[in-house]
Amino acid sequence: QVQLVESGGGLVEAGGSLSLSCAASGRTSTRYVMGWFRQAPGKERAFVAAITWSGSSTKYADSVKGRFTISRDNARNRVYLQMNSLKPEDTAVYYCAADNSDLILVRSVNYDYWGQGTQVTVSS
């Protein structure tokens, strides 16, 4: 079992930046792919970004490429999402997730563990 706790959400104006953090605890010795997803009101949960255990491979949704950066610190059992040039359409609850896999997958059903989510609101 892995427990995930997100932090860093909040309210920011369009064009601003936020940095999200996800702290993992429990069975952290397993080499999980870590991902970020988001869910806006009335919409399905959507893939944002993911990173392999080594950090050598990342993947981003087209809507965030060039604006968001995912990274991880395995020594601290943390994964981060740096969000720049935020837009109102980035407003959502952001979730951290872990997948016991070597490959980056973009479907939420493939991820085994989830955090409780953190709200990000971007005002226009």
What does this structure look like?
The protein has 124 residues and is mostly beta strands. It is 0% helix and 51% strand. It is built from no helices and 11 strands. The chain has strands spanning 2-7, 10-13, 18-26, 33-39, 46-51, 58-60, 68-73, 78-83, 92-99, 113-114, 118-123. A hairpin with a 4-residue loop joins strand 7 (68-73) and strand 8 (78-83). The protein starts with a strand and ends with a strand. The relative contact order is 0.32. The model has no long low-confidence stretch (mean pLDDT 96).
Present the secondary structure layout.
Elements: E1 2-7, E2 10-13, E3 18-26, E4 33-39, E5 46-51, E6 58-60, E7 68-73, E8 78-83, E9 92-99, E10 113-114, E11 118-123
Parallel strand pairs: 2-11
Antiparallel strand pairs: 1-3, 3-8, 4-5, 4-9, 5-6, 7-8, 9-10, 9-11
By secondary-structure content and strand pairing, the structural class works out as mainly beta
Q: What is the distance, rounded to the nearest whole angstrom, between the alpha carbons of the first and last residues?
A: 40 Å
- Strand residue percentage: over 45%
Overall geometric form = globular
Tally of helical segments: 0
In round numbers, the mean pLDDT is 96
Q: Give the uncertain stretches in residue-range form.
A: none
Order of helices and strands: EEEEEEEEEEE
Main sheet overview: 7 strands, mixed
